[in-house]
């Protein structure tokens, strides 16, 4: 009986370890050193499209960085095309590889 219980618990433990390993190894971290260059470019594209469609504004993105908050978010800064005095800022959620989303924006 004890042997059967030990085998059962060992099997469950191995299944859990396997599942966690699979999730860890197959999930990309968009903020990792390896992935961030791609994340940066896609965040720029997302911000440019957002400001064109939602704010009717052509913009130039000058900086992109990690917010430091929980979750996968990056900040962008830039300005209106041909008007460096009109500054723009946005926070972009990059958690879903195929669906980056502007969650906050500001125009000065």
Automatic annotation (TrEMBL):
Keywords in alphabetical order: Membrane, Transmembrane, Transmembrane helix
Record-annotated membrane-spanning stretches: 6-25
Source domain of life: Bacteria
Presence of keyword Membrane: yes
Listed name of the protein: PepSY domain-containing protein
Origin species: Bacillus proteolyticus
